[in-house]
From TrEMBL:
The keyword ATP-binding does not apply. This is Enoyl-CoA delta isomerase 2. It comes from Leptonychotes weddellii. Able to isomerize both 3-cis and 3-trans double bonds into the 2-trans form in a range of enoyl-CoA species. Has a preference for 3-trans substrates. Residues 45-130 form the ACB domain. It holds the Pfam family ACBP. GO terms for cellular component: mitochondrion; peroxisomal matrix. In the C-terminal section; belongs to the enoyl-CoA hydratase/isomerase family.
Length: 400
């Protein structure tokens, strides 16, 4: 293959571009309409395919020119069908190599190309995973994430929200990266997975600037994409198979609070607060909190939080069952991590199976509630109440 013979920086640059120039990022931004095509007898679903496209970006090892061309060709075939562009000129080496690879797939059906793409990525991931397992420095920070810091140590995978200057507000990229991190953590050799925040906040919830990037389809498309992203995001928490722990180092707002109902342990610093100002924002509960909160704290207290936006102290959240234990801020990190390191030595399978027994009978219900909450929010985001509240925050940096 012409490009494989290219050496040095030029070849590397081309090949990285061959994969990077695929519309990976646009698929991250616009998962709408595509993510919920169900799995068919033909093989990989569109969602598996989207996920494989995202995983390519996180490969630890460069897969080499030939594989990148194969990925490129399968991607084009899966998304556009048989090669439909004119053959590039003889001296246009890069585009000719790409064209040849795509054209070589002939009339391969889109579904088969999609499946082959998913299989290829899965093979690349497992070989890169197994090579990383033997590395002695397996407990180092994982690369490939921009909004998170992920470390694995003492059988604990720690996912740290890392936008401290924005109080760890969840932007679209962070939602996507958290989903990828959860998927990876569900398969790694850790026994428990921990979320925490960097800086003084745990998280200020949804990044309100997420509402400003309007796609060509307008605000309706934006709302639809948001609802799909939200639903996928919360689904990952519902389905997460290992004990999931929140180390709430400071104030928590919005969606960072609601999903706590899907965690197995919530440890809080006495500096933490818990605030869900949905009505103030013209919005409604998500993260399955319309179901989990009344169940955890009783209807009256859940209503105070979810409808009236009452902010709870860590002590109040503990009294209402949302928080497992509160620690003084001065000793928080030390006490919590000592505890978690001890827990992480417990037998992995016993913990996983226990979680399954405790949670599985609710899963279907939680998925249905998540779908309903997401679709209600899709409408809410188009309401004057919501638009005005968000505009107010963005224009005046109004504090709630
Ligand atoms: C796919 C979409 C799914 C959506 C699901 C639905 C989710 C719902 C929610 O999560 S609702 C909750 C949304 N969050 C908020 O309403 C909080 C808004 N922020 C604030 O009220 C305040 O910033 C604060 C109380 C968190 C902190 O106040 P303060 O200590 O005074 O700090 P600053 O306000 O100066 O904040 C520093 C810096 O961060 C920016 N920032 C903080 N939070 C957010 C946010 N949620 N979205 C966007 N930006 C945020 C803030 O603007 C400052 O930026 P600047 O330094 O000015 O550039």
């Amino acid at each position: 293959m012409a490009v494989v013979g290219l050496s040095g920086r030029l070849a590397r640059c081309y090949c990285l571009r061959a994969v990077r120039s695929l519309p990976v990022c646009s698929s991250l931004r616009v998962p709408a309409l595509q993510l919920h095509v169900s799995k068919t007898a033909m093989g990989a679903s569109q969602k598996d395919f989207e996920s494989a496209v995202n995983q390519v970006k996180l490969l630890k090892k460069d897969p080499g020119n030939e594989v990148k061309l194969k990925l490129y060709a399968l991607y084009k075939q899966a998304t556009e069908g048989p090669c439909n562009t004119p053959k590039p000129g003889l001296f246009d080496l890069i585009n000719k190599a790409k064209w040849d690879a795509w054209n070589a797939l002939g009339d391969l059906p889109k579904e088969t190309a999609r499946q082959n793409y998913v299989d290829l990525v899965s093979g690349l991931r497992s070989s890169s995973d197994s090579s990383s397992q033997v590395k002695p420095e397996a407990d180092k920070k994982q690369a490939g994430y921009e909004t998170l810091v992920i470390t694995s140590e003492d059988h604990i995978t720690k996912i740290m929200l890392n936008r401290p200057a924005k109080k760890n507000a969840l932007n679209t990229q962070m939602y996507q990266e958290i989903m990828l991190a959860l998927e990876a953590a569900s398969k790694d050799d850790s026994t428990i997975t921990v979320f925490t925040g960097s800086g003084d906040y745990y998280s200020s919830g949804n990044d309100l600037t997420n509402f400003t990037d309007i796609p060509p389809g307008g605000v309706e498309e934006k709302a639809k994409n948001g609802a799909i992203l939200l639903r996928d995001f919360v689904d990952c928490f519902i389905d997460f198979p290992k004990p999931l722990v929140a180390v709430v180092n400071g104030p928590a707002v919005g969606i960072s609070v609601t999903v706590l109902g899907l965690f197995d342990l919530v440890y809080a610093s006495d500096r933490a607060t818990f605030h869900t100002p949905f009505s103030h924002l013209g919005q409604t509960p998500e993260g399955c909190s319309s179901y989990t909160f009344p169940k955890i704290m009783g209807l009256a207290k859940a209503v105070e939080m979810l409808i009236f936006g009452k902010k709870l102290t860590a002590g109040e959240a503990y009294a209402q069952g949302l928080v497992t234990e509160v620690f003084p801020d001065s000793t928080f990190e030390k006490e919590v991590w000592t505890r978690l390191k001890a827990y992480s030595k417990l037998p992995r399978n016993a913990m996983r199976i226990s979680k399954q027994i405790i949670r599985n009978h609710e899963k279907e219900k939680l998925h249905a509630i998540n779908a309903e909450e997401s679709s209600i929010l899709q409408e809410r985001w188009l309401s004057d109440e919501c638009v005005n509240a968000v505009m107010n925050f963005l224009s005046q940096k109004a504090k709630l």
